[in-house]
Design brief:
By secondary structure, this protein is an all-beta fold. The protein contains no helices and 13 strands. The strands form 3 sheets. Strands 3, 4, 5, 6 and 7 form a 5-stranded antiparallel sheet that branches. Strands 1-13-12-2 form a 4-stranded antiparallel sheet, with no helix packed on it. The protein is globular.
């Protein structure tokens, strides 16, 4: 199994986005999340051969900026959260035990995307307008460096 895509979970509003990394040797360096009572916006920062590549910010201008920086050889194992007609909350968990939660308490449907052994979540896709309406994941093999 090489790259795999799962999802999305969430609503049908907004416009499609897809942060599928075109680089074989990419690793997630940072996930930026703007949140309040929901997930307002997200931005992915990849590490490609030691260079930071910022993807486009998806969503609107609301919420407070938070994020999760990943250390060397740390990667995202799973994301989970809740949604109704948009993504209400989102939690990231890494292979080194880092857990970060964003968003509010709303939503009525739980979702989870977990990578199998020796795989990592390397990108996101879904729908966004002034908030993150839906989210799915790209999963790829772990690159040992």
């Amino acid at each position: 199994m090489s790259k795999v895509i799962f999802g999305p979970s969430g609503g049908v509003g907004g416009y499609p986005y897809d942060d599928d990394p075109p680089y074989e040797n990419a690793a997630v360096r940072e996930v930026r999340v703007w949140s309040s009572t929901c997930i307002n916006a997200m931005q992915l920062v990849l590490d490609v051969d030691g260079e930071a590549i910022e993807y486009h910010k998806h969503g609107g201008n609301g919420g407070h900026l938070g994020g999760m920086a990943l250390s060397h050889n740390e990667y995202i194992l799973e994301i989970y959260g809740r949604f109704g007609s948009y993504i209400d909350s989102l939690t990231f968990r890494t292979n080194l035990g880092q857990i970060r939660r964003f968003g509010g308490q709303g939503g009525h449907v739980d979702f989870i995307y977990a990578s199998p052994a020796n795989y990592q979540i390397i990108g996101f896709w879904g729908r966004a307008g002034h908030i993150i309406d839906a989210i799915g994941v790209h999963i790829a093999p772990v690159i040992k460096v």
